[in-house]
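Hi U.,

Before I forget, here's the chain from the pilot set. I'm dumping it here mostly so it's searchable later in email.
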Amino acid sequence: MTRAETKAGVVAHRKRRSRLDVFAIGLSAFALFGSVVFLIAVSYLSDAVILSMGSVAAEGEVVRVLRHRDSDGRQSATPVIRFTTAEGKVVEFSPSLGDPALERIGLKVPVRYDPESPGRASVGGLEHLWGAPLVLALFSLPFLGIGYGYWLLRLSRHLRGRRVERAGRRIEARLTGVEREGAASAGLDAAGWVIRAEWEDPKDGRRHVFHSRPLPFDPTAFLKEERIGIFLDPADPGRYRMDLSGLPALAE
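Structure:
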């Protein structure tokens, strides 16, 4: 394979990787959105903790119901509740979690408020005090799991490979060929050429099969030897890293 052909392979590989980068950006957006929602849940949770520990009871009244219509034409309502503190200060607030039962002007409702900051108030009852943080936290979990799970998996694979290279046992495996691999079978890596090798453990005679990460060009012309180095995890031979240091830097 000529240098020009190698570079052409790298260009094609980078185009495939760019599609995976779009996928990674999408998952990052998932993680960011989930983080924002979770932080809002934590904010509501802090208010709930404060109100559950040192709040004061009062009687509130629904004085207004604000009607909203979104871009899809769907309507929602936000009740405005007024109450008077023990010091005689009149305070108005809206519940953090919607409740159709509160959408009636003149309705009397129990209220809990922070005496040091009366604007931090909630309708009495566990569902109103803890409902908003619980709903938001549960809503954020799928986004956090999908978004951060992807990057944690990538980081885990990278760190495991580096650890195997530093502390693993090096063996010489027999090259069995180079194959073109598609994106579906390449997992989290872009599609490319994969080096395959096998080794028989002299201790128990078991045969182990290895493969490299997908490479951006056909490495056949650079594999001059019949064997290639493999770093094995001493505790688990299924964890390994193929030594690709003999290939051009374009393989990285």
